């Protein structure tokens, strides 16, 4: 018998029918002999609806009220799930963040968990009850509700798993695990049996949207085993855990991200302080720049490019337009049709030549590299969005990641996928 | 400067626009120099929607989960109202039942308030903040949320007013006070300046839907002055308070209620135990019988009628059908087209002849009385629904309640009103 935490996201609890399915799933785990704790997000689009109501009343709503408002979403789903479990003859009990003992710092809207008091949940488990915990929320020292920020329910699940000493934290979603690449793009992608925390962090950061980075960070810090699996099948998913170093693959997987845009500022005088001026202004205006590329200077004039999330583009344009005359630059252009493709693998550290091989493979396939960035265990290149799928596939093959079987759900041609990714924003 | 509690119902906070209006109203009260505490219900139909979700998952949902679920409705409206006040440059802070110190007994779904801890609200008031309190909810000794039952927000408002020693508890709604009769039915109805607690309780019980009886009971017990007034105008409404006995009117007002039905059991043997059998079974099946009428026995056979809320009719039919053979009765008939018209007045106790005069007036107007019931300060008659409006009007005139002005919003003819009331269910 093991003690497991099962987390279900907003899509899994979006309707009474889906809540019924989650209840069945939890009961099945219990019938297998496990002690089970559920963690849930708010139903479907609830959080967005509440945000809409708030913004209709106050363009800058007080954070305390906002947290209190948003926290009601998970309180609805947790009570409904508890009711659904009870209707099937099993004991269940809902717990708000407060009742589940999730103590946070005072920062509203993006609170950090400082302590998990496990007493009430342990008592419920001992009484044969399935505790259903509201994700995304905690309580600060003043007794006010705080929220953990978007995607905070994954973090709640990992924190609860740690707090009660669970054997595993199962995170259910509409994908059945972590793949060596997105199977919709690379049909020969393999589902990974296990991934190290470090690799998972890099994959998440590079666009593999399976798990919230923050939850993975928490899990790494406190050594909580995560099992990322499908809400719709019983198949084993992917375990995220400490992987013994001797088993490290050079490349664990390839992630891609089409959510960024590239901004190029042309005709910039190559003088001291220009970059500082530009990127300082961007940071001050809340633009998260990712990669930065500066061309070789020609007669004291150069071009500077950077990438940022497309959600930051409006602020980026505003900043650049303001800074342009100050730095005496000529003009700027925006390229929205780009994609970032990243190779991730802890073994990369000890295997020189990964970058050279990657550039070679992309060159052989006539894929133009627009920008490059690296970390010790990641290599990212920016390419035309139309070439992204091809880039993922040829790198996947070249680094020996291809599976023998072809992912069956991929019905699109390479061209269709490329077209889709180019417009995917 | 006075300390006032302002309660707004679900209709008043049903949309962001209406919440804005409530915020303006509260700020206006504060600008007049008062200290203000707001109490709110859930937005519009929220509570019904949540009930619908719950019943889709569990036909008999656990009471603890249900209370937790329903309490989110007021938590949404309170935070939105606080945000709207802040957006206008005034300080506001929302309080759940727990934070407002509303301590209840352990009965979920219809908890009784046992204590009001006023510290946090007083602190907020001292800091110049407008506290916005979630109606309808409290917290029990186990730290779980409880709800006070339908219409519980009025009770919260009165309890908070008592807890903080407010000068008045203003209850805003879509009617502008308590009238001597429903002005839509009796165009010469007068708005009452003040009504005693006892009269208000009888009026509420007899169908005047302005205030929740429970809130009035609480106010009477703890001597809280209620001001029932319009959410849409600044006009003074009606004060419900202890009225000096020497000012007592014989008749304060006339209420009517078309929500009841009459069930008549025919051919009942007039033997001992028949009534006990019938009404015992009805009570056991949760049928709230109101009036009971037994005809004079003819050759040992009689008819028995009773009235009950139409919402109880299904259970009433079921009970009567089961009991009918046991008491050897012949048949039963249901009359849904009835109305109860009630004369209420504390002064009635000391003024004999009210009943005689009422029967005389109704007779002169050819209105047939189907049943009669009385309390020391109330006389109720059941009449055909089609004659109810006429009954209200002629009694209103006969007992000297008519105002000199005619209620302007009444556009319907007497016939139209009668038709409307007959189908009003």
Number of helices of chain A: 12
| Pair with the biggest interface | A-B, 35 and 35 residues
Low-confidence stretches of chain A: none
Please tell me the overall pLDDT of chain A. 90
Oligomeric description of these chains: homodimer
User: Helical content of chain A, roughly?
Assistant: 25-40%
* Structural shape of chain A: globular
Class per helix and strand makeup of chain A: alpha/beta
List keywords for this structure.
homodimer; 425 residues; alpha/beta; 8-stranded mixed β-sheet; 4-stranded antiparallel β-sheet
What does this structure look like?
- The structure is a homodimer of 425-residue chains.
- With 425 residues, chain A is of the alpha/beta class.
- The first copy, chain A, is 36% helix and 24% strand.
- Chain A has 12 helices and 20 strands.
- Chain A has helices spanning 16-31, 46-57, 63-87, 119-126, 152-163, 197-205, 213-222, 274-284, 313-326, 354-364, 385-398, 414-422, and strands at 3-8, 35-40, 92-95, 102-104, 113-116, 130-134, 137-139, 145-147, 168-173, 194-195, 226-230, 238-240, 253-257, 260-269, 292-294, 301-309, 331-335, 338-344, 371-375, 378-384.
- In chain A, the strands form 5 sheets. Chain A has an 8-stranded mixed beta sheet with strand order 3-6-2-1-9-11-12-10, with helices on both faces. A 4-stranded antiparallel beta sheet of chain A has the order 13-18-20-19, sandwiched between helices. Chain A has a 4-stranded antiparallel beta sheet with strand order 15-16-14-17, covered by helices on one side.
- In chain A, helix 1 (16-31) packs across helix 3.
- The longest helix of chain A is centred in the first third of the chain and has 25 residues, at 63-87.
């Amino acid at each position: 018998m093991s003690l497991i935490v099962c987390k279900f996201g907003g899509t899994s609890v979006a309707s009474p029918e889906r809540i019924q399915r989650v209840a069945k799933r939890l009961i099945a785990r219990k019938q297998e002999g496990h002690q089970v704790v559920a963690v849930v997000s708010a139903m479907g689009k609830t959080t967005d609806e509440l945000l809409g109501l708030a913004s209709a009343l106050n363009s800058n709503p007080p954070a305390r009220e906002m947290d209190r408002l948003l926290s009601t979403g998970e309180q609805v789903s947790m009570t409904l799930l508890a009711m659904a479990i009870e209707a099937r003859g099993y004991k269940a009990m809902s717990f708000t963040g407060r009742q589940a003992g999730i103590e946070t710092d005072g920062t509203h809207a993006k609170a950090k968990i400082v302590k998990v008091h496990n007493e009430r949940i342990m008592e419920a488990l001992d009484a044969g009850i399935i505790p259903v915990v509201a994700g995304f929320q905690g309580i600060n020292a003043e007794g006010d509700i705080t929220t953990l920020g978007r995607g905070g329910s994954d973090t709640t699940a990992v924190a609860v798993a740690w707090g009660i000493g669970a054997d595993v934290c199962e995170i259910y979603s509409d994908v059945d695990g972590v793949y060596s690449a997105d199977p919709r793009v690379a049909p020969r992608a393999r589902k990974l049996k296990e991934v190290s925390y470090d690799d998972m962090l890099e994959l998440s950061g590079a666009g593999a949207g399976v798990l919230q980075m923050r939850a993975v960070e928490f899990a790494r810090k406190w050594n909580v085993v995560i099992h990322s699996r499908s809400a719709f099948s019983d198949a084993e998913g992917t375990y995220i855990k400490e992987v013994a170093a001797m088993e490290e693959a050079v490349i664990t997987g390839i992630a891609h991200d089409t959510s960024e845009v590239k901004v190029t500022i042309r005709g910039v005088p190559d003088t001291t302080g220009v970059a500082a001026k530009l990127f300082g202004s961007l940071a001050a205006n809340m633009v998260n720049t990712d990669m930065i590329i500066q061309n070789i200077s020609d007669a004291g004039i150069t071009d500077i490019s950077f990438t940022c999330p497309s959600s930051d583009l409006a602020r980026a344009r505003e900043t650049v337009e303001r800074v342009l005359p100050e730095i005496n630059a000529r003009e700027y252009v925006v390229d929205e049709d780009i994609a970032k493709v990243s190779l991730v693998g802890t073994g990369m550290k000890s295997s020189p030549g990964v970058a050279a091989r990657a550039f070679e493979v992309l060159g052989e396939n006539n894929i133009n590299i627009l920008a490059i960035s690296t970390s010790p265990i990641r290599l990212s290149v920016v390419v035309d969005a139309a070439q992204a799928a091809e880039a993922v596939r040829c790198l996947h093959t070249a680094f020996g990641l291809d599976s023998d079987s072809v992912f069956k759900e991929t019905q699109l041609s390479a061209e269709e996928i490329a077209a889709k990714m180019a417009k995917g924003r």
